[in-house]
Amino acid sequence: QPGPISPDAPPTHRLGKYDFHYCDLLVDWALAHNMKVKGHVLVWHVTTPPFVEDLSPAQLRNELKRHIFTTMGHFRGRIKVWDVVNEALAPDGSLANNVFLRKLGPSYIEDSFRWAHEADPTAFLVYNDNKVEGMDGPNASKSDGYYRLLQNLVQRDVPIHGAGVQAHFNAAGVGRQRTPTPRMVKNQIRRIGDLGLKVNISEMDVRVSKLPPNLRQIAQRQIYRDILMSALSEPSFDGIWLWGFTDRHTWVTHFYHDDEPLVFDEDYGRKESYYGMREALESIAPGGVVGGGNVPLGLDDLDGDGNSWGHMWMQPEPEEGDGSNAKTSSNSTKDVGDSRPDWLQT
Fold first, then answer.
1. Which residues carry out catalysis?
2. pLDDT at res. 321
């Protein structure tokens, strides 16, 4: 990142100065242990240092290009997959009114991908966003905007190879925070795959602390299992990244609330969600059934027993006028161009 990611860190003015020491330690350790590394992320307004607001459009364009070339050039041959642009969409599917859009216009997304490809022509380049996992789901407008953005990039022969859907799910969510069904996820992956792009689940975790304790493990296992199993049924799906692996170390605690969103507990023990994810992966192993396991993929989202997906744990939508401030799936004027990160929109 071009600046500090800690909210408590002092602002940086190190324009054009880079220190890759700790990043090198991490990347080299991973490669030495036969692991692959994905670069995240080259262009994201949320972690861009505030001083870029003082740059002219020409200066910002030059610095953004230099940042992409410097970072990708340093890791060329070691990092072969990059999230190039992250979270450039507002909740209504329009472009987020961030510093790059205001100063450079919509072309900053296309330019970033072209620069990234020029910096490393062998790299696999990805656009990444949140609340875009399901077609015709709780966030239909944003998911549609996501598809249109990708479609436009492909039609303009922009060097983009993949699409990341983050999958930061809230099992107790209502309105736009509701978890999409496996059918919605499958259909979103399918239409993006039809553009010729690969699709990955890029940052998955599942918050459960707002559910009754007896439902948390049930919900988390089903979401990990069924969402991944539905994704694996699409040929364009090429992988899943979890946003951490143990509840001992999770961003959720710092940005939302105390929770247990991952597949290993705080003592590194395997949780029910681990076994759910393993069961999904077994569906593509010899003897497995791709898209099997009683995962509802039909238009009615009903399983083989006639139950709605998530019926054991999914929370009812609040009644109108009950005092709840939960956002619904419909859009408002506040959504247009909203560039705040997801944790500030809840």
1. 87, 203
2. 58
